[in-house]
Amino acid sequence: MKRFCVWLGVLAIGGSVMTMEAASQFPIYKEYKVPKPAGVPEYNASDFSLDLDHVASRKGDFLIPDNEGLLKIAKLYSTPEYAETWKGCQLGMANRVNLWDLNRNGFASQRHIYSLQSIHTYAFWYLLSGNKHLGQLLHDHMLLGAQLPMEFWLHAELRGYNKELPKGQLECSTLAGSYAIALSLAGEIFTPEEKATIEAALREKGFVPSMNTVRNEPPPPKKLNNFAAVVSTGAFLVAKYFNDEKAMEESMALMKRYLLDTIEADGSYDEGTGYFSYPINTLSRGAAFMNREQIQRVYGEAPLRNSPVWMVYHYPFNPENEETRSWATHFGDNSWSFMPSVAVINSIIYQDPLAAWLVKYFRPKGNMSLDLLQLPFPEGIPAPKSPKELNLPLIRFFDDGDAFIRSSWDENSTLLSIHSHNPNKHMMSHRRPEINSICLFARGEYFVCSPASASYRAPIHYTYDTATRGANTISIDRQNQLFPGNGAGSWNTVDLSGFWQKGNPSSDNVTCEEFRLARVVVNEAKDAYHVKMSIARRAVIYVKKGDYFILVDRLAATDGPHEYTSYLHFNNRDEKTTLQKKDSNTWLCVRPTANLQIYLVSDQKLVFEKGKGYLHGKSRDYAPDGENQGKLGSAIELTTSNKQKSKEFTLLTVLAPNAVKQTRNIAGDLQTLTVDSDVITIQNGSLTLRQGKDAEAYQLW
After folding, report:
1. What Å distances lie between residue 682 and 166, 239, 586, 626, 685, CA to CA?
2. Do residues 223 and 427 touch, judged by C-beta distance below 8 A?
3. Is the pTM of this model over 0.70?
4. pLDDT digits (tens, 9 = 90+) for 145-180
5. Among the residues of 9-163, which ranges form H helices?
6. DSSP 3-state percent helix, strand, coil across the chain (nearest 5)
7. Distances in Å between the alpha carbon of 554 and those of 94, 530, 605?
8. 686 HSE (CA, 13 A, CB side)
9. pLDDT tens-digit profile of 454-485?
């Protein structure tokens, strides 16, 4: 039995934030364009060719001393294996030169500093192609960026600016690292005077503030988060570019501390997959410019080597489809679609065959971090091995508190995850009051969904995303589960007092076990509520042969009576979902390629409500009302409550995924239930499953 108690801070983007009042004194730096020179032709993608002579002509520096490794990487782009990757590079180069601008798509692209962070990619393309107009575009934007003031580099609009001790945070350090890489790959595009100007700006506005942060990071027992990984990586890249040995050592020490401080022994990460992918992807950029001895010092002891196993459980592994391949189960502020960046770094540094399989499956070729990591690791990645080949178990509980039940490791496998709180090393934000919440993928569809995250500046993030009503769990008296703070983030202006319950929740994982007929997870969350509970338990039973789930919720308060409400949210992001009531106990969630049959019975009379909720997009927006913010109705809500308040409440929910136009025969009550020919009975807290002459019992409470 594992006991989890969580202590969380306010929600923030990676670390320190400013209040709106304090930040408002600084200017907002939006898009900065440079004039397109006369005579630049309109390019087709095919106009960009690979120029190995240009790669060979590059002059070495401290970041990349020689060209031998770069030439080897460049030659990959002329091989059949990299044909599609090179086409993607060609298309990117043509788009940038024809528009004569940076990429203005993606997270926070309306702020210039985020778009300018991509210059290292353009420098890599310029190195490979030698195209003079791409070089001119890079030249003009890097010079402009160097001339922008400290407030821009520090992103003071969000982070503030302490003139006595300017500190580089996420945006500053990422930009500084990008400048260092771009100068190393394409430094010849500048005159000596221009290069000196840029280097002076990089040192003053990027390197010094980043090192101020590295050197002023509070020592243990203060815990770190992804902020430390990003800042230390940017600082390391600039330190190596300037050949500052002391700054390199300090930066690497913080990288190592981050890896040891935040990742659980089994490789899991309490802030979730998205808030793990971001720092690990950034770290891989820095690792590409380390030598083998430095990499061993930073990564040798890190539990990061175990992270691909944790990561792989999140994916239902949809077919070969760009839209659905990277869909994943998620909780907290994380999104439902992401590439496992841990695969890039683990496949090479740890020579991990599972990570190599993830690289192959998600095909992140043209990922500059993956390609440049072959500078210190010219042997490349090992032969891949799939989770099926490695015989990974189909039920697993991780130290971050999340459990997973899978039908198989095949494509389109059924996947349910259930969330509990476990801060362990991390004890950080980006978690929510959603203990015992579930997500469900089945038959190629995302059925039961978590809302993901709107912009931190959007009221809906606080009133819905981070509220228990937005999760697939149980509330008592329509109040949040316990959660630290008062729900007011730096940008929230909405009064949450009507449902917010301040406190530090805890939960137990009681059972996570493979049986002959079923896979079973049982969580206890009696200490997650403002009401004193003797039990608040959720059991998930996956019936293997039938490919369906039984959820049993048992709640009993020491006082009462209370209203108990179970929430389920169904993905309607594409507006192709319908939720139909079929009879007094049965609902049908219909998606284009499958349906989910929902059957609910209780020891109380039930009241159902059908409503509209939110499912946000594949990433969080920087500003409110961005393209990723879900519309009302992008999730369909089904709430189930006891009609009369009571001290105790038991609810059984069957979730049965079916093929299109097929349903199952489900009938019965809480004592005896049938699902087709299966018979389920509950007595004295024990659930018995009978399939023909075979039977098995599971103790739930």
Report:
1. 63, 64, 20, 48, 6
2. yes
3. yes
4. 999 999 999 999 999 999 999 999 999 999 999 999
5. 20-23, 52-57, 68-76, 83-99, 112-116, 119-129, 132-147, 150-153, 156-159
6. 35, 20, 45
7. 60, 17, 15
8. 9
9. 999 899 999 999 999 999 999 999 999 999 87
